Amino acid sequence: MQTVAVVSIALLISVASSLPNFLTNNIEGYTLPNNETIYIINAPMLANSGSRNIVDTNVLLYAIVGARANEVIEKIMGFPRVLGAVDGCHIQIRAPQEKYHPMSYLNRKRDYSVILQAVCDHTLRFTDILSGWPGSVHDARVFKNSPLYEASCSENLFPGDTHIVGDAAYPLQSWVLTPYKDTGNLAECQKRYNFIHANTRQTIERAFGLLKGKWRRLRFLEMTKLEDVPSVITAACTLHNMCIENNENDLDMCSDTSIFADAPAVSEPLNQSGSVKRNALAQYFWSTNRY
Predict the structure, then answer these.
(1) pTM of the full predicted structure?
(2) How many other CB atoms sit within 10 Å of the CB of residue 6?
(3) CA-CA distance, 212 to 257, in Å (whole number)?
(4) Which string of DSSP letters, residue by residue, matches 97-117?
(5) Nearest-angstrom CA–CA distance, 245 and 133
(6) To 10 degrees, what angle do helices 188-214 and 67-77 make?
(7) Contact residues for 206 (Cβ-Cβ < 8 A; gap 6+)
(8) Integer CA distances (angstroms), 235 to 10, 28, 230, in order
(9) pLDDT (tens digit per residue) in 230-259
(10) β-strand partners of 130
(11) Angle, helix 9-18 to helix 229-245, in steps of 10 degrees
């Protein structure tokens, strides 16, 4: 019999406050050009169940790199040298007070929400999260303002030609592989690449489904203090990881409509190194008859 954890906001805040100071004290007030202030939190997640330590993103990504790890991930996810999948989902909130510029939090479905950007691995465990951006902001903008993007552009977070996968809302990079834009004239190898890419990327959608299925308060956060929202989301994500690490198999998948369809594709100049890598993978899938 499946069980579902329906917890109070107060309990999630309590969990957040009991986490290491890295989580609870890493909330940043971010001022946009229109002088609007938003509250975001970036938190690398638990590296392993043994130490229960919060680790630096750089350490975490290195921890799952290696020939054997990549073989396991490729077998499960179908994509060579992939370390995980990235996407964003919306956490619906009550209408913010005027001082928070509530119109900025109206998403495409005209609900008030904040965005949770996350990367997950093949076990559906979150390996990096960023939460708190207003619901009206495009996934690509959230991503390009994330510490993960900044660090990946300046540090060697993806050694051995490894990468993550994301939908068309994300910018193509050598370390973020996206699908080909389908305008009706894709080659067969490109179609096959897109098919395998989509199957691999489903892991992050399933992770969000498990998160909201287990912690159903995330379907609607009835909170008046917007500054507390990122901490609550982070607490739920951390508990989600602990459940997976403890092999809890009673997680209920959520079909919540706030897990949006893909955001509109990003329009920007094609990244050369990312394009070359994607083309090589498309040819590899075609030559090896991968599905």
Answers:
(1) 0.78
(2) 9
(3) 11
(4) PGGG-GGGGB-TTS-BEEEEE
(5) 28
(6) 90
(7) 124, 253
(8) 11, 16, 9
(9) 888 988 888 888 888 888 755 566 655 455
(10) 42, 117
(11) 80
